[in-house]
Fold:
Amino acid sequence: MSRKNDILSRMLKDHSKIEELLDDLEEEVRKGYSNMKKSFSRFEWELEKHIFVEERAIFTEYFPKDVTEGYKMLPVVTKDHNFILNKINNWRNDILNKRNITDISELKDFLIKHREYEETELYPKLDQALDEEQKKHIIDRIEQIVEY
Ligand SMILES: [Fe+2]
Ligand SMILES: [Fe+2]
Structure:
């Protein structure tokens, strides 16, 4: 099977998977606590794997030639990740304390903006800047963690 040697297409697929899981969570919250718990656990697992892959498999391999331009992107994305993970922690606490989670649409809007930035700015630049061998190495790591 020949697959394009690019990071963007793989992350696109994972982004839509995460968005579907969040849609599912939003739906399940309406149905009650036990459904919400299962659905949250699936969403949380996939989202945390995704962020792990981005920060530990992809960003660590990126050493831009144009340092000011290149490195500008990573703090933006990492700051977003911290916001997202913090929100997830709050939801986890809500669930442990048998509270309904709130602000789902707020996180959804945030995630959409975040992934659009990655898909239009970050990953196209990375695919351009990295050589084939670096990309192969990163893709191999992505595929150890993420299932499509
Ligand atoms: Fe991200
Ligand atoms: Fe992402």
About this structure: Residues 51, 54, 77, 81, 114, 118 surround fe (ii) ion (ligand 1) (CB under 6 Å). The radius of gyration is 16 Å.
